[in-house]
Amino acid sequence: MAPDLRLRESDEIQGDILAGFKKDNVSVLFLKFEDAGRAREWLRQLVPQIATTREVATFNEAFSEARKSSGGDDPKTLKATWLGVSFTYEGLRALSTTDPFVTPPPVGSGLEAFKEGSAKRAGALGDTGDNSPENWLFGNGKNQPIHAVLKLSADSEKDLQAAIEAQRIAAAEQRVLIVYQQNAQTLLGSRRGKEHFGFKDGISEPGIRDFDRPDPARPEEMDGHPGTRLIPPGEFVCGEDNDPFSFPKDQYPVWSRNGSFQVIRRLAQDVPGWWSQVSIKLRELKQAKAVPDSATTEWLAARMVGRWRSGAPVCKHQDRDVPNTPSAASDNDFDFRDDLEGLVTPLWSHLRKTSPRAALQESPDKEPIAAKDLDGRRIMRRGTPYGAPFDPASEGPGGPDDPRGLLFICYQADIQRQFEFIQADWMDQPNFPPNRQTDTTPPGHAGPRPVPGKDPVTQEAPDVDFESRAQDGTIRHTPVSFQQFVQTTGSVYAFMPSISVLKALCDGRLTPQGGGQTTGQGGQTGQTQQQGGGRQPEPQPVKAYPCDEFLPVPDQQRRAGQSQYWAFHGDRCRLISVADGSAHTDRKVEDDTWLTTWSCLQGVGRVDCILPMPDLQNPGGKSWYWVFHSTSGRQQYRAVSITCGGGRYTTALERADRDLTAWGSLSGVGQVDCWLPVPDQQRVGGKSWYWVFHTTSGRQQYRLCSIADGSAHTDVRERTDREISQWGSLNGLSRVDCFLPVPDCQRVGGQSEYWAFCGQSYRRISIADGSGHPDRLVSGDRSCDAWASLG
């Protein structure tokens, strides 16, 4: 049976996302709208020129076949000029006259990253000091705002210049200003296909299911590219099938369907400084007897990258490059499982930092994570070098101080989960892989230090651990420091819409005619984008996970063997029940309703977590709660009440929103994710204790807090932050979204059990009473699909 390659036929998806323009000459125009109406007219004239996936994929296939027929030479008669357009959050809002998000996007989500933009998130990505936005040439949020990005790609410089000139005229006619222009070009001659440091680039791009042909013998890999996994298309195109642990495809905004989120970064490279540093560090390593006497600068540079200049992987060619072996130059058929210590390809090499493959361990004593479980972290790169080349190994046309670098462009469905995670949690994280420590303590360190270090190719790496095998067979650790030779000089987050959405934007709409309601991340649903607005429609059926919070219905706990809960997800809520007994049968009692149907939640786009006031639960049928929620990227809290009576529930806003700073126990916390009561420490001596799970600087931790009874509800931080890896029952989780107590397993025999939810999966854990509160895993991760009430 022929494989289904339906995405190759798409006339909706812009051509650079899946097919890739793959041209030698590129220019990116960063644009500002002076007048929204005239900008729509500019877009109306532009839309027919935008390249689709069908056009680009067809051309690329014909081009590839022609090259094969000509013995590897580019065909002279096959030429094309491609255009792609994307918009920042401000650009979408200007063209559509409405906010793309009816309610604020969830904190920590890719949609939030898109809305905030790269300048606001620079610090978390290591863009500080010389890399900080104040030094950027574009996208810093302080100079001219950027509303749109136009990418032009052509086979020849002449064709590119003609396209640029045409677009300059079209933009000027409609008062669309060019804020910045960045040209880029494939390096020529022996440098073709390489970046400025001299290494072949773009080798490890993922294959795409339903677009690339699968290998008949290994259908999980791309045909003709051994080791290149086929990734679900929804990791790059919103609304398509994606990884089970990624955000559900049916909960992206309607306007995002068949589109992709785009990251653009101008990365300046100091090539002379790089090679000088490699030479200096090689001498240091030789003096320390950490590398062979025969090691050269090429040998060390290859280990820093993970590949030789030709692209051949170091793990298969340890001693020297093999530039005349074409198969080695594009080899992806390896996974590092035979080099978990990084003795051949260092753990801090660029290759392993950006794609650990099947050799990523949570700790050295754990089995490596399967490569398929990292599918949700992949990105689609479309970068091109800019500037004249310079290489100390040969004379080049550019001087050592000439501007040069990489125009980095990538596509993904979730900027935070994909690009930002790779950048902040892998590349910029010294303790990656996590939980590793050296056996020895280098001079100047107070104790064992984390290994292996930051990515020395792209960032300053002042504390890299070079691991080697000593003569007695033990692993020796040699500290090495690298300066930074790649500088961020501009960055933009944008969204590349489908062709239908581009046409809608021409008319000032964000969704195509007949597009219906706009559904946002986390089930956030708003009104159809129509002139004059209208009544909010009823929620359409969606899955109720990822779960944000479960709130016990005050007078419906363990009644006739059933317990009821309100399950909050996104901007909606449903009523569910869970039965006592070993099966704990669950069912949906009522369908979803909008949060806005709760009078106490007006203005709340999403509930992050809820904490019952410990001494105000159901006195006289009224229960009080603190509701934590996020608005415009900042978490606040409010006090609300729920009154029960006659099977009806009345809610009220008791105290308006306040900042987290009002809680002394939450000092330094960016966002509270969930509260877990210490089971045997509730209202003991007028005080209740809680473990507070919170996200600060992109990483979830927990602390121990207490809250006193009484009108002031005095709160105290009882213990400082710790990593959630301290919980054996939570091993393998990077975060917990919420906990749900198992209703008939609370303080039974000194044990309390909970379901811990994370994304689309959950697990069951137990916590013991007494000193230390030992925890254990009762049952491992399962899909939330196992909950009938959440489907």
Helix content: 10-25%
Specify Rg, calculated over alpha carbons: 28 Å
What's the N-to-C terminus distance?
Answer: 33 Å
Q: Which residues sit in consecutive blocks of at least 5 with pLDDT less than 50?
A: 439-450, 514-535
Strand content: 25-35%
The whole-number mean of residue pLDDT values reads 90
Structural class: alpha+beta
How many E-type strands? 31
Q: Give the overall form.
A: globular
Q: Give the quaternary arrangement of the chains.
A: single chain
| Number of contiguous helices | 12
CATH class (first level) name of the domain at 549-790: Mainly Beta
Major sheet: 5 strands, antiparallel
Q: In the CATH scheme, what's the topology name of the domain at 549-790?
A: Tachylectin-2, Chain A
- The name of the CATH architecture of the domain at 549-790 is 5 Propeller
List the helices and strands and how they pair.
Layout: H1 15-18, E1 25-33, H2 36-46, H3 53-69, E2 81-87, H4 89-96, H5 110-116, E3 148-154, H6 157-173, E4 176-185, E5 207-208, E6 230-231, E7 260-269, H7 271-287, H8 297-305, H9 326-329, H10 350-354, E8 380-381, E9 384-386, E10 405-412, H11 416-427, E11 461-469, E12 475-482, E13 486-496, H12 499-506, E14 518-520, E15 524-526, E16 549-552, E17 562-569, E18 572-579, E19 586-594, E20 607-612, E21 622-631, E22 634-645, E23 648-659, E24 671-677, E25 687-696, E26 699-708, E27 715-723, E28 738-741, E29 751-758, E30 761-768, E31 775-783
Parallel strand pairs: 5-6
Antiparallel strand pairs: 1-3, 1-4, 2-3, 7-10, 7-13, 8-10, 9-10, 11-12, 14-15, 16-17, 17-18, 18-19, 20-21, 21-22, 22-23, 24-25, 25-26, 26-27, 28-29, 29-30, 30-31
Helix pairs in contact: 2-12
